[in-house]
Design a protein that fits this description.
Chain lengths: ~475, ~230
């Protein structure tokens, strides 16, 4: 039984998240194991990715990737129409869902209609976004995650902490403990290969039972109606070919025009995501099994989700739709590295998550409106992004759009600030007052307890009242 | 441009910058009417309030001169954000013009190949502030300026990583900001230098403030102050 809750309003953030965003960062900072695990992962990613930058000129590839994705988004309606026509031509079914609830209704309805009891899934952020697992379970259907990381999280009953590496916040010992619990025996190896072999055996049993395989889509290629599913474990190949029905769930922005564009993006994706020059498996799926073919599902359904994406076209946030979900901005982000993805309370964490979660949910959603503020605007994300999304600019714009009691209070404060600081006389008077206050509060060159907004400063650090500061 | 942080906490920074420039033979004007680049309101998500202050800054710094700023962050704000902030506004042209004329102090020294003469000998460790590094795309000019001035720089680990200051972020998420500041302060001390320098006063106030609270033996000075002596 899952304790994860499903939401009826089509929101993106999780509803079972406790406390405020700041409280969650404080909890995460206390967890030393978490910090160690995140740092190991981010450092190893950084080293591999740097090798790609040097070996393949990843930075130069970014310009073309950016152009491709921007033109995809500009031409989105036409590309989606082409994609849809070509998938149907190949014998597949295409469903356009306005939101997650509609997509979930379609998929659970399909499962019921075909009498399916077990659904096997490969890793997909889109299904995490629409809370498909919860919808299927509520309909009495068993869901098995077949991606190693996702299966680990299913056993731990946790949310993913990274777009590409969902269980990256857990270490080997923690995983071994979960496997022992699931298997009901201590006879589970605790070395890396042994754990993978154990998972493979347990999961293969499930493939045979599954009537539907659900996958995500990394890219849709409009010119041929092909969906690309990129993976490193081979489980997605089984999910998309073994069960009788394959349902592919795609965010509407994930479409490129043709194979020329797809080839470039499919190269950039693993380089940025995991610092490898190719993914282990790239599954290219065009419709269901055809006559005379021996492999593949009998039915192929492509579910294309809007979920608030379409409304971003033509706005100052349009470039957020260029995202290819590689997770590079997460690894590069000092905040994500410090607290992990779960603190964000959304399947999309890190800088891109802090931008798109409130965009998809609306500016006043309590679950996500604070996210754009959890950034020092250091720009490491924009530098890491392989499709050149100016994430730090989008974070600033997302802050301006956010609406909460806190933003209204800060709006009033900055209104007063603006009136004082746009005139030299009042500015100088303000500065004189501030310096008097510093002098009054200072002792031996340091203030340790400032009033008002300064309290946030002196909570964790002192304020030098003399400069250069005294020791 | 003096910068508001220098006005508020460290007037010695803009005064040192002025002396360094004058030693290079540059004529320096410090407009008395200047206030702030408006970055605090802009990054806090209040563009209208920011624009009103930035409008004043554009007016104060109209004219043909280059505008030298002893801060990568304030310079980056003018260079990078002003064109966006004033898009479609009556001041758009003036904003773009100011963005073109604005330059960070050590970048100005490098651009005109200026040598202020000997500065403090160090050793110091240099924190690459994020806006210097990633908005202005600059990591060489402060190192060149320090080297010319005869100052020994001992590089710390991960000098390109954020110190966690982030303006309003430092107050909205103090625990997270403080943790990153502590990591930065420890990396700075491990370099073997006892003093951290940077082109950005905001980062320095934060790093040295955390260091003082945590008992980490670290001094801090702005690059301009090191070049000044």
């Amino acid at each position: 039984m899952s304790t994860r809750r499903r939401r009826a309003d089509g929101g993106v953030a999780y509803l079972d998240v406790q406390g405020t965003l700041r409280e969650r960062t404080v909890d995460a900072l206390r967890d030393r194991t978490l910090r160690g695990n995140l740092d190991t992962a981010a450092t190893s990613w950084g080293e591999s990715r740097d090798a790609m930058r040097e070996g393949y000129g990843l930075d130069d590839m970014r310009e073309r990737a950016r152009e491709i994705r921007r033109s995809n988004i500009r031409n989105l309606p036409a590309l989606l129409a082409e994609m849809q026509a070509n998938v149907r031509e190949a014998g597949g079914t295409v469903v356009r869902a306005a939101d997650g609830a509609e997509a979930c209704r379609y998929i659970t309805g399909l499962a019921r209609a075909r009498g399916v009891k077990v659904v096997a899934k490969s890793k997909s952020m889109a299904t995490e976004e629409i809370k498909l697992n919860e919808a299927l379970q509520d309909a009495g259907i068993e869901v098995v995650e077949t991606d190693l990381g996702e299966w680990i999280l299913q056993l731990a009953n946790e949310h993913p902490s990274h777009i590409i590496a969902p269980a990256v916040h857990l270490n080997r010992e923690q995983v071994a403990a979960l496997f022992r619990e699931e298997a009901g025996t201590d006879e589970v190896p605790d070395d890396r290969e042994g754990l993978v072999a154990h998972a493979r055996v347990r999961l293969r049993e499930k493939f045979a039972e599954a009537g539907i395989g659900v996958s995500g889509v990394n890219l849709g290629v409009a010119s041929t109606g092909t969906v690309c599913v990129v993976e490193n474990e081979g489980n997605a190949r089984l999910v998309t070919s073994q069960p009788r029905i394959h349902v592919a769930v795609m965010g509407m922005e994930r479409v490129v025009a043709d194979w020329d564009e797809a080839a470039h993006i499919l190269q950039v994706l693993p380089m940025a995501a995991i610092g490898q020059d190719a993914a282990n498996y790239v599954n290219l799926i065009t419709g269901p099994r055809r006559e005379g073919e021996s492999d593949g599902p009998e039915e192929f359904h492509l579910v294309i989700i809007d979920g608030g994406r379409g409304a971003l076209r033509g706005t100052e946030f349009e470039e957020a739709l260029s995202c290819i979900r590689c997770g590079a901005c997460l690894y590069s982000c000092p905040m994500w590295r410090s607290v992990g993805g779960q603190a964000y309370g959304s399947p999309y964490s890190g800088p891109i998550g802090a931008v798109i979660t409130p965009l998809l949910e609306g500016p006043s959603s309590p679950a996500s409106r604070d996210l754009p503020f959890m950034s020092s605007l250091c720009g490491a994300c924009g530098e890491a992004c392989p499709v050149g999304i100016p994430l730090q600019d989008l974070l600033v714009r997302a802050r301006a759009r956010s609406s909460s009691p806190a933003t209204r209070a800060s709006g009033l404060a900055f209104r007063a600030w603006s009136r004082l600081w746009r005139r030299p006389g009042t500015y100088r008077a303000w500065m004189a007052g501030w310096r008097l206050m510093l002098r009054a509060r200072g002792k031996d060159g340091w203030a340790t307890d400032l009033p008002g907004p300064g309290a946030g400063w002196t909570q964790v650090r002192d304020m030098p009242t003399k400069w250069p500061p005294r020791r | 441009m003096r910068t508001c942080l220098s006005d508020a906490v460290a007037p010695s920074v803009w005064k040192a910058s002025k002396r360094v420039l004058e030693r290079c033979g540059v004529t320096v004007k410090v407009p008395r009417a200047q206030t702030c680049c408006s970055q605090p309101a802009w990054t806090a998500g209040h563009p209208d309030q920011a624009r009103a202050v930035a409008r004043h800054t554009i007016k104060v710094f109209s004219g043909p001169e280059e505008v030298v700023v002893p801060s990568g962050s304030c310079a980056g704000m003018v260079v990078h954000a002003y064109p966006e902030m004033f898009r479609g506004q009556p001041e758009e042209e003036a904003a773009i013009d100011l963005a073109r004329r604005t330059i960070e102090l050590t970048q100005f020294l490098a651009k005109h190949d200026l040598d202020p003469g000997p500065g403090a000998p160090g050793p110091v460790t240099l924190h690459d502030s994020c806006h210097m590094l990633r908005v202005l795309d600059e990591s060489r000019s402060p190192r060149e300026a320090l080297a010319k001035g005869g100052c020994e720089v001992r590089e710390m680990q991960h000098t390109d990583r954020c110190c966690g200051f982030g303006g309003v972020f430092s107050i909205n998420f103090p625990e997270l900001s403080g943790r990153l500041g502590e990591e930065k302060a420890r990396a700075a001390v491990e370099s073997g230098a006892r003093e951290v320098v940077s082109c950005d006063l905001g980062c320095l106030m934060h790093i040295v403030g955390v260091a003082h609270r945590e008992g980490i033996p670290l001094r801090a000075r702005h690059v301009a102050e090191v070049l000044d002596r």
